[in-house]
From TrEMBL:
InterPro entries in UniProt: Desiccation-related_membrane, YtxH
The keyword Transmembrane belongs to this UniProt entry's keyword annotation: yes
Species of provenance: Pedobacter heparinus (strain ATCC 13125 / DSM 2366 / CIP 104194 / JCM 7457 / NBRC 12017 / NCIMB 9290 / NRRL B-14731 / HIM 762-3)
Superkingdom: Bacteria
Keywords per UniProt: Membrane, Transmembrane, Transmembrane helix
Signal peptide positions (record): none
Residues passing through the membrane, by range: 24-43
Source taxonomy: Bacteria, Pseudomonadati, Bacteroidota, Sphingobacteriia, Sphingobacteriales
Protein name, per record: Gas vesicle protein
Length: 134
């Protein structure tokens, strides 16, 4: 009997689904946790020792969660500090550039004003010379 052909024929009608394994991983982890708890509960130890072990494991898990929370909190705080520092540097950079542009404009305005004043003075002198020659 050709088993390969038989298996291929049986599974050929099943539509192909994407391989999303999230549900399977969650089910596996849940099964492992339930199995661990049941193993501890049915272990050949006294009830007092079993309860102590469960309590110790729960406390360890709580401590691990608190440590993880603190770690995430510290990382967020450090990221916030980095962002505040970046903001301060950008604001300082923009202020410096605005001041530089303002200074350049003032210098340009003063130079052009002097040119205009000089031109007006020259025109007035020329007009005065022309009037005196008449």
């Amino acid at each position: 009997m050709n088993y390969k052909k038989l298996i291929t024929d049986r599974f050929s009608g099943i539509p192909h689904r994407p391989t999303d394994t999230t549900g399977a991983v969650i089910a596996l982890l849940t099964g492992l946790a339930v199995g661990a708890v049941l193993g501890v509960l049915f272990a050949p130890e006294s009830g007092k020792k079993t309860r102590e072990r469960i309590s110790d494991k729960a406390l360890d898990l709580t401590d691990n969660l608190k440590d993880g929370y603190q770690s995430v909190k510290d990382r967020i705080s450090a990221g916030k500090d980095d962002i505040v520092g970046l903001k301060d540097r950008v604001v300082d950079n923009v202020k410096n550039k605005a001041n530089a542009v303002s200074q350049e404009f003032k210098e340009f305005k003063d130079a052009e004003t002097e040119k205009v004043k000089s031109g007006v003075k020259q025109a007035a002198d020329n007009a005065n010379d022309t009037i005196q020659d008449i």
